């Protein structure tokens, strides 16, 4: 039995706990720590998972999953460092934080794996990218793949690519939600009831995603398949091009990558 403790059960920590429970992992194999007592009580009531303190998590769990905001990492590290032995695996879900931020604080040899997951973990459809730190080996990566593979897909990437991954798949769901929100608003403008507009757009998104996943051709070909000569779609595409939507998305993702790099730099030392 592998016990997993999630340190910081906010949106992504809860998504992981909930996703693992949904895939049949018993609540006895899961623990969590949480700064907010109210949130801790709510989660225990909802999921039946035990809330513990950091020393207890470090003693009882094999894997410690760090899921606090990057800005909150230092106080948590202060609590972890005295109690985390090198036989534990530390898994960081924190955007922007390089594995060396953890390694330089923990006992020599402590394995650290950096992960960028995303919230569709909640419904078993996460995209997670994982990178080994200096002391994490094949067995550690396989363990993390097994856990995250139960709540979605997993790719191995060099750590140097993690900031780009964060911008694409870590933040990506927010951009899709934003597009859906805007398209539903368009339906309202055209006089459709909100519930109907939402149903039309959400099912269109699910259908388009399913076609993309089937992998039968390139997205450009799929878009061309919708775009009839002198038809409706090309009139819409012209507006998207006029408003620079493609460039806006590229700029948005570049800005998210830059912010990820910046979050990591805050924790750099002169070492
Ligand atoms: N929300 C998302 O879509 C994604 C978030 N992440 C990363 O996951 C991490 C968490 O993000 P969210 O869940 O969105 O943030 P959040 O703010 O919803 O959750 C963080 C939780 O940690 C708790 N916390 C803070 N310090 C603590 C401490 N010392 N001990 C115990 N609990 C503590 C807070 O009370 C809060 O419930 C971040 O590092 C973020 O970069 C990664 C991928 C996607
Ligand atoms: O916005 C954030 O910083 C986090 C990391 C990736 C998605 N959400």
| Shape assignment | elongated
Mean pLDDT across the residues is: 96
Number of domains: 2
**Helix share bin:** 40-55%
Q: At the third CATH level, what is the topology name of the largest domain?
A: Rossmann fold
Keywords: Amino-acid biosynthesis, Cytoplasm, NADP, Oxidoreductase, Proline biosynthesis
GO cellular component, one term: cytoplasm
Binding site for NADP(+): 67-70
Function: Catalyzes the reduction of 1-pyrroline-5-carboxylate (PCA) to L-proline.
Structure description:
Helix 7 (162-170) packs across helix 12 (245-265) and helix 8 crosses helix 9 (194-214). The longest helix is centred in the last third of the chain and has 21 residues, at 194-214. By secondary structure, this protein is of the alpha/beta class. It is 53% helix and 13% strand. The chain has an 8-stranded mixed β-sheet with strand order 3-2-1-4-5-6-7-8, sandwiched between helices. The protein has 2 domains: 4-157, NAD(P)-binding Rossmann-like Domain (Rossmann fold); 172-260, ProC C-terminal domain-like (ProC C-terminal domain-like fold). The structure holds 1,4-dihydronicotinamide adenine dinucleotide and (2S)-3,4-dihydro-2H-pyrrole-2-carboxylic acid. 1,4-dihydronicotinamide adenine dinucleotide (NAI) binds next to helix 1 and helix 4.
Fold topology:
Blueprint: E1 4-7, H1 11-22, E2 30-33, H2 37-47, E3 50-51, H3 54-60, E4 63-66, H4 73-80, E5 89-92, H5 99-103, E6 112-116, E7 126-132, H6 138-149, E8 152-156, H7 162-170, H8 172-189, H9 194-214, H10 219-226, H11 232-242, H12 245-265
Parallel strand pairs: 1-2, 1-4, 2-3, 4-5, 5-6, 7-8
Antiparallel strand pairs: 6-7
